């Protein structure tokens, strides 16, 4: 199965590690570092660490593309990003070093017009076809309009490509409003993103389950809702289940959702049953949480974590 990820708005994640985050006060940072990232880049990095060949595309600013090129080359990822004049955005991540929790400040990114969008679409079409799987992930440049993922999904599905979508706000809403032939095969909102889509708060697990089932009824085959330290919910035709994270040392939560998506993709690649898919996805997230950047431990360690993950069926 050929795997490709799309990141239309990548980012350099600049993490500032603090003893504790106290809004409104002066902080002295413990350390600071930068990782080339963005949702599809992070997903591809985890898939490559797991040992799967993967291609990436999207749009990079040519003025600071070097860290991306270095990272992708080091992980053996096929770099098919379209480069345009300007700089890729830098996102700020304020890390509370005691808990591993981060406060994210995600900036708007590079805007680009129809000719760049068309160049990326052409790369995506070139990289996909029957039997391949595409991950469309992250925020969209404003100029593209909120239905950009819905349009790409419809085209990819016509070409026999499965689509995993990790989007939020109007882009997620537009994708879920597409007709049956244009719906993604899988989505991974977090609780907040699902609340935005459902237009109501989802305080309890039962509320989350109801909203996830609404997405499934709209025609999405696999709905995975990530719930931070509470694990994740999986709803598919085989049933619904909740997976609980193992005890995890949290170095940084940045990219935990992306690692979960990568685990889902690796599970779909291997045609796993729903419980094993859930274990694989949570093991990827737990493996990534123990380190900074989009890096997984070795396969044996990830498999050992997966074996420990508790999965509860929901009747
Ligand atoms: N503090 C945490 N402790 C243990 N596991 C966590 C923690 N935060 C995230 N995870 C794991 O990572 C997954 C994705 O995290 P989440 O924060 O829900 O995603 P996102 O980054 O997309 O908001 C969760 O489903 C869970 O398995
Ligand atoms: O495209 P968006 O939604 O602005 O998100 C980009 C940010 O998300 C990340 O991919 C991390 O995502 P998660 O923590 O949800 O896995 C960062 O690398 C990046 O700064």
TrEMBL record:
InterPro entries xref list: 1-PFruKinase, Carboh/pur_kinase_PfkB_CS, PfkB_dom, Ribokinase-like, Tagatose/fructose_Pkinase
Domain Carbohydrate kinase PfkB: 8-296
Example of a GO MF term: 1-phosphofructokinase activity
Alphabetically ordered keywords of this record: ATP-binding, Kinase, Nucleotide-binding, Transferase
Highest taxon in the source lineage: Bacteria
Alphabetical list of SUPFAM superfamilies matching this protein: Ribokinase-like (SSF53613)
Catalytic activity: beta-D-fructose 1-phosphate + ATP = beta-D-fructose 1,6-bisphosphate + ADP + H(+)
CDD domains: FruK_PfkB_like
Family statement drawn from the similarity comment of this UniProt entry: Belongs to the carbohydrate kinase PfkB family.
Function noted in UniProt: Catalyzes the ATP-dependent phosphorylation of fructose-l-phosphate to fructose-l,6-bisphosphate.
Protein name stated in the entry: Phosphofructokinase
Organism of origin: Methylorubrum rhodesianum
